[in-house]
Amino acid sequence: MSTSAYYLVEKKGPIAWVYLNRPEKKNAMHAPAWKDAPAIFTELDDDPEVRVIIVAGKGSDFCVGIDLMGMMGELPELMDAEQKGGVKWQLLKKIYPLQATMTAMEKIRKPVIAAVHGYCIGAGLDMITACDIRLCTKDAKFCLKEAAVGFVADVGVLQRLPLIVGQGITRELAFTAKNITAERAEKILLVNQVVEDYETLLAEAEKMALEISENSPLAVQASKDVLNFGVGKSIDDGLKYVASISANIIPSHDLMEAVTAFMEKRKPKFTGK
Question: Which of 152, 141, 191, 149 is nearest to 174 (CA)?
Protein backbone atom coordinates (compact mmCIF):
# COMPACT_ATOMS: atom_id res chain seq x y z
CA MET A 1 0.00 0.00 0.00
CA SER A 2 1.25 3.48 -0.88
CA THR A 3 2.44 5.48 2.13
CA SER A 4 1.22 9.02 2.66
CA ALA A 5 1.96 12.03 4.82
CA TYR A 6 -1.78 12.76 4.91
CA TYR A 7 -3.78 9.53 4.68
CA LEU A 8 -3.69 6.63 7.11
CA VAL A 9 -5.00 3.37 5.64
CA GLU A 10 -6.12 0.49 7.86
CA LYS A 11 -7.70 -2.75 6.67
CA LYS A 12 -10.15 -4.66 8.82
CA GLY A 13 -11.66 -7.70 7.15
CA PRO A 14 -13.53 -6.60 4.02
CA ILE A 15 -13.33 -2.91 5.00
CA ALA A 16 -10.56 -0.43 4.27
CA TRP A 17 -10.49 2.65 6.49
CA VAL A 18 -8.92 5.73 4.90
CA TYR A 19 -8.33 8.37 7.57
CA LEU A 20 -7.56 12.00 6.86
CA ASN A 21 -4.66 12.12 9.29
CA ARG A 22 -3.42 15.65 9.84
CA PRO A 23 -5.30 16.40 13.06
CA GLU A 24 -2.97 19.19 14.18
CA LYS A 25 -4.19 21.17 11.16
CA LYS A 26 -7.80 19.95 11.35
CA ASN A 27 -7.02 17.81 8.30
CA ALA A 28 -6.50 20.83 6.04
CA MET A 29 -5.43 19.49 2.65
CA HIS A 30 -1.82 20.25 1.79
CA ALA A 31 0.13 18.82 -1.18
CA PRO A 32 0.24 15.14 -0.06
CA ALA A 33 -3.54 15.18 0.48
CA TRP A 34 -4.07 16.04 -3.16
CA LYS A 35 -1.27 13.98 -4.69
CA ASP A 36 -1.64 10.71 -2.78
CA ALA A 37 -5.36 9.96 -3.07
CA PRO A 38 -5.54 8.54 -6.62
CA ALA A 39 -2.87 5.88 -5.98
CA ILE A 40 -4.34 4.92 -2.60
CA PHE A 41 -7.88 4.48 -3.88
CA THR A 42 -6.73 2.66 -7.01
CA GLU A 43 -4.75 0.19 -4.90
CA LEU A 44 -7.75 -0.41 -2.64
CA ASP A 45 -9.95 -0.89 -5.68
CA ASP A 46 -7.53 -3.52 -6.97
CA ASP A 47 -7.32 -5.34 -3.62
CA PRO A 48 -9.62 -8.39 -3.81
CA GLU A 49 -9.97 -8.53 -0.02
CA VAL A 50 -11.45 -5.02 0.20
CA ARG A 51 -15.15 -4.69 -0.56
CA VAL A 52 -16.02 -1.32 1.00
CA ILE A 53 -14.00 1.81 1.85
CA ILE A 54 -14.76 4.21 4.69
CA VAL A 55 -13.28 7.73 4.64
CA ALA A 56 -13.08 9.41 8.04
CA GLY A 57 -11.05 12.09 9.79
CA LYS A 58 -8.73 11.92 12.77
CA GLY A 59 -8.83 14.63 15.42
CA SER A 60 -11.52 17.22 16.06
CA ASP A 61 -12.82 17.67 12.50
CA PHE A 62 -13.28 15.83 9.24
CA CYS A 63 -11.62 18.48 7.07
CA VAL A 64 -11.48 22.28 7.11
CA GLY A 65 -10.64 22.50 3.42
CA ILE A 66 -7.56 23.35 1.39
CA ASP A 67 -4.43 24.47 3.23
CA LEU A 68 -3.93 27.65 1.24
CA MET A 69 -0.62 28.60 2.86
CA GLY A 70 0.63 25.04 2.58
CA MET A 71 -0.26 24.93 -1.12
CA MET A 72 1.36 28.21 -2.13
CA GLY A 73 4.53 26.40 -3.12
CA GLU A 74 2.49 24.19 -5.43
CA LEU A 75 0.31 26.99 -6.79
CA PRO A 76 2.44 30.17 -6.98
CA GLU A 77 0.23 31.34 -9.85
CA LEU A 78 -2.50 32.22 -7.33
CA MET A 79 -0.48 35.17 -6.04
CA ASP A 80 1.02 36.29 -9.34
CA ALA A 81 -0.04 39.93 -9.69
CA GLU A 82 0.53 39.97 -13.45
CA GLN A 83 -1.82 37.08 -14.29
CA LYS A 84 -0.78 36.99 -17.94
CA GLY A 85 -2.07 34.31 -20.28
CA GLY A 86 0.90 32.02 -19.68
CA VAL A 87 0.35 32.13 -15.94
CA LYS A 88 -3.33 31.31 -16.33
CA TRP A 89 -2.51 28.48 -18.73
CA GLN A 90 -0.11 27.01 -16.19
CA LEU A 91 -2.69 27.28 -13.39
CA LEU A 92 -5.31 25.55 -15.52
CA LYS A 93 -2.99 22.58 -15.97
CA LYS A 94 -2.59 22.32 -12.18
CA ILE A 95 -6.32 22.31 -11.44
CA TYR A 96 -6.92 19.03 -13.28
CA PRO A 97 -4.84 16.89 -10.87
CA LEU A 98 -6.68 18.47 -7.94
CA GLN A 99 -9.95 17.40 -9.52
CA ALA A 100 -8.52 13.89 -9.93
CA THR A 101 -8.12 13.65 -6.15
CA MET A 102 -11.89 13.70 -5.70
CA THR A 103 -12.70 11.80 -8.86
CA ALA A 104 -10.59 8.89 -7.59
CA MET A 105 -13.24 8.14 -4.94
CA GLU A 106 -16.11 8.45 -7.37
CA LYS A 107 -14.68 6.37 -10.21
CA ILE A 108 -13.40 3.31 -8.35
CA ARG A 109 -15.79 0.38 -8.49
CA LYS A 110 -16.02 -0.21 -4.75
CA PRO A 111 -18.48 1.74 -2.58
CA VAL A 112 -17.05 4.59 -0.52
CA ILE A 113 -18.74 5.75 2.69
CA ALA A 114 -17.87 9.17 4.15
CA ALA A 115 -18.03 9.39 7.97
CA VAL A 116 -18.07 13.09 8.87
CA HIS A 117 -17.61 14.80 12.22
CA GLY A 118 -16.91 18.40 13.17
CA TYR A 119 -16.23 20.79 10.32
CA CYS A 120 -16.50 19.69 6.70
CA ILE A 121 -15.57 22.78 4.73
CA GLY A 122 -14.58 23.56 1.15
CA ALA A 123 -12.44 20.72 -0.16
CA GLY A 124 -13.84 18.51 2.59
CA LEU A 125 -17.31 18.99 1.12
CA ASP A 126 -15.88 18.33 -2.34
CA MET A 127 -14.52 15.03 -1.05
CA ILE A 128 -17.69 13.72 0.54
CA THR A 129 -19.81 14.55 -2.52
CA ALA A 130 -17.51 12.23 -4.49
CA CYS A 131 -18.32 9.42 -2.04
CA ASP A 132 -21.32 7.15 -2.46
CA ILE A 133 -22.88 7.48 1.01
CA ARG A 134 -22.46 10.05 3.78
CA LEU A 135 -23.00 9.74 7.54
CA CYS A 136 -22.28 12.42 10.13
CA THR A 137 -22.34 13.30 13.80
CA LYS A 138 -24.89 15.75 15.17
CA ASP A 139 -22.14 18.33 15.74
CA ALA A 140 -21.04 18.25 12.08
CA LYS A 141 -21.07 21.51 10.13
CA PHE A 142 -20.87 21.79 6.37
CA CYS A 143 -19.84 24.76 4.25
CA LEU A 144 -19.31 25.41 0.56
CA LYS A 145 -16.79 28.06 1.53
CA GLU A 146 -15.10 29.15 -1.68
CA ALA A 147 -17.16 32.29 -2.42
CA ALA A 148 -16.17 33.68 0.98
CA VAL A 149 -12.47 33.50 0.10
CA GLY A 150 -12.62 34.66 -3.52
CA PHE A 151 -12.64 31.31 -5.30
CA VAL A 152 -15.07 29.38 -7.42
CA ALA A 153 -15.25 25.78 -6.20
CA ASP A 154 -13.40 24.03 -9.03
CA VAL A 155 -12.67 20.45 -8.02
CA GLY A 156 -16.12 18.90 -8.30
CA VAL A 157 -18.61 20.03 -5.68
CA LEU A 158 -20.57 22.27 -8.07
CA GLN A 159 -20.97 19.31 -10.42
CA ARG A 160 -21.78 16.65 -7.81
CA LEU A 161 -23.72 18.48 -5.10
CA PRO A 162 -26.72 19.32 -7.35
CA LEU A 163 -27.14 15.60 -8.02
CA ILE A 164 -27.49 15.05 -4.27
CA VAL A 165 -29.43 18.08 -2.99
CA GLY A 166 -30.72 19.78 -6.15
CA GLN A 167 -29.90 23.04 -7.91
CA GLY A 168 -31.68 25.44 -5.56
CA ILE A 169 -29.97 24.21 -2.41
CA THR A 170 -26.59 24.03 -4.14
CA ARG A 171 -26.90 27.61 -5.32
CA GLU A 172 -27.91 28.77 -1.85
CA LEU A 173 -24.88 27.09 -0.29
CA ALA A 174 -22.49 28.28 -3.03
CA PHE A 175 -23.67 31.89 -3.04
CA THR A 176 -23.98 32.39 0.74
CA ALA A 177 -20.96 30.29 1.82
CA LYS A 178 -22.76 29.74 5.12
CA ASN A 179 -22.42 26.85 7.54
CA ILE A 180 -25.26 24.37 7.75
CA THR A 181 -25.93 21.97 10.60
CA ALA A 182 -26.12 18.20 10.55
CA GLU A 183 -29.88 18.50 11.00
CA ARG A 184 -30.24 20.56 7.83
CA ALA A 185 -27.74 18.36 6.00
CA GLU A 186 -29.97 15.37 6.67
CA LYS A 187 -33.10 17.29 5.68
CA ILE A 188 -31.66 18.22 2.27
CA LEU A 189 -30.37 14.65 1.79
CA LEU A 190 -26.69 15.62 1.88
CA VAL A 191 -26.22 12.93 4.54
CA ASN A 192 -28.00 9.60 4.90
CA GLN A 193 -27.89 9.49 8.69
CA VAL A 194 -26.99 11.64 11.71
CA VAL A 195 -25.60 9.97 14.83
CA GLU A 196 -24.76 11.11 18.34
CA ASP A 197 -20.95 11.15 18.47
CA TYR A 198 -17.68 10.13 16.80
CA GLU A 199 -17.56 6.63 18.26
CA THR A 200 -21.13 5.95 17.12
CA LEU A 201 -20.28 7.40 13.72
CA LEU A 202 -17.45 4.94 13.16
CA ALA A 203 -19.56 2.07 14.46
CA GLU A 204 -22.49 2.92 12.17
CA ALA A 205 -20.21 3.37 9.16
CA GLU A 206 -18.66 -0.02 9.88
CA LYS A 207 -22.10 -1.60 10.32
CA MET A 208 -23.25 -0.29 6.95
CA ALA A 209 -19.99 -1.34 5.29
CA LEU A 210 -20.40 -4.86 6.64
CA GLU A 211 -23.97 -4.99 5.35
CA ILE A 212 -22.70 -4.03 1.91
CA SER A 213 -19.80 -6.48 2.09
CA GLU A 214 -22.16 -9.40 2.65
CA ASN A 215 -23.72 -8.87 -0.76
CA SER A 216 -22.25 -10.00 -4.06
CA PRO A 217 -19.25 -7.80 -4.88
CA LEU A 218 -20.01 -8.22 -8.57
CA ALA A 219 -23.55 -6.94 -8.12
CA VAL A 220 -22.58 -4.08 -5.78
CA GLN A 221 -19.77 -2.85 -8.00
CA ALA A 222 -21.86 -3.20 -11.15
CA SER A 223 -24.62 -1.18 -9.47
CA LYS A 224 -22.19 1.65 -8.72
CA ASP A 225 -20.91 1.52 -12.29
CA VAL A 226 -24.44 1.73 -13.70
CA LEU A 227 -25.40 4.57 -11.36
CA ASN A 228 -22.27 6.53 -12.29
CA PHE A 229 -22.90 5.99 -16.00
CA GLY A 230 -26.48 7.20 -15.68
CA VAL A 231 -25.53 10.70 -14.52
CA GLY A 232 -26.46 13.10 -17.30
CA LYS A 233 -27.77 10.32 -19.53
CA SER A 234 -31.29 9.58 -20.72
CA ILE A 235 -33.27 6.71 -19.20
CA ASP A 236 -33.00 4.92 -22.53
CA ASP A 237 -29.20 5.24 -22.54
CA GLY A 238 -29.12 3.95 -18.97
CA LEU A 239 -31.34 0.99 -19.78
CA LYS A 240 -29.16 -0.05 -22.69
CA TYR A 241 -26.04 0.25 -20.54
CA VAL A 242 -27.41 -1.73 -17.60
CA ALA A 243 -28.56 -4.46 -19.99
CA SER A 244 -25.00 -4.85 -21.25
CA ILE A 245 -23.59 -4.88 -17.73
CA SER A 246 -26.15 -7.43 -16.59
CA ALA A 247 -25.39 -9.68 -19.54
CA ASN A 248 -21.67 -9.41 -18.78
CA ILE A 249 -21.83 -10.44 -15.11
CA ILE A 250 -24.43 -13.22 -15.47
CA PRO A 251 -23.94 -16.11 -14.93
CA SER A 252 -21.46 -15.91 -12.06
CA HIS A 253 -20.29 -17.97 -9.12
CA ASP A 254 -22.03 -15.41 -6.90
CA LEU A 255 -25.36 -16.07 -8.60
CA MET A 256 -24.94 -19.82 -8.27
CA GLU A 257 -24.00 -19.38 -4.62
CA ALA A 258 -27.12 -17.28 -4.00
CA VAL A 259 -29.33 -20.00 -5.50
CA THR A 260 -27.56 -22.76 -3.57
CA ALA A 261 -27.73 -20.84 -0.30
CA PHE A 262 -31.45 -20.24 -0.80
CA MET A 263 -32.06 -23.94 -1.37
CA GLU A 264 -29.95 -24.85 1.66
CA LYS A 265 -31.60 -22.15 3.80
CA ARG A 266 -28.35 -20.43 4.75
CA LYS A 267 -26.64 -17.09 4.14
CA PRO A 268 -24.66 -16.98 0.89
CA LYS A 269 -20.89 -16.57 0.96
CA PHE A 270 -20.00 -14.47 -2.03
CA THR A 271 -16.55 -14.43 -3.60
CA GLY A 272 -17.00 -11.84 -6.32
CA LYS A 273 -16.33 -14.39 -9.06
Answer: 152
Amino acid at 163: L
- β-partners of residue 15 are 12, 52
Task: Report d(CA 70, CA 73) in Å as an integer.
Answer: 7
- The pLDDT tens digits of the residues spanning 37-55 come to 999 999 999 999 999 999 9
Q: Please, which residues have CB within 8 angstroms of residue 270's CB and are 6 or more apart in sequence? A: 214, 215, 216, 217, 218, 254, 257, 258
SS3 category, 117: coil
Instruction: From residue 159, give the alpha-carbon distance in Å to each of 30, 33, 99, 167.
Output: 23, 21, 11, 10
Q: What is the spatial distance between Cα 234 and Cα 126, in angstroms, rounded to a whole number?
A: 26
Q: Cα separation of 210 and 66, whole Å?
A: 31
Instruction: Please list, in sequence order, all residues whose beta carbon lies within 8 angstroms of the beta carbon of residue 221, skipping any fewer than 6 positions away.
Output: 109, 110
Of all helices (H) and strands (E), which one includes residue 112? strand 112-116
Instruction: Report the SS3 class of residue 251.
Output: coil
Cβ within 8 Å of residue 176, ≥6 positions away:
147
Counts of helices then strands in the chain (DSSP H, E): 11, 9
Of 103, 105, 119, nearest in space to 53 by CA: 105
Alpha carbon distances (Å) from 249 to 229, 235, 245, 258, 268 = 16, 21, 6, 14, 18
State the helix-helix crossing angle for 217-230 and 253-264, rounded to 10 degrees: 120
> What would the pLDDT profile of 56-109 be if each residue is shown by its tens digit?
999 999 999 999 878 766 666 565 567 666 666 677 777 888 899 999 999 999
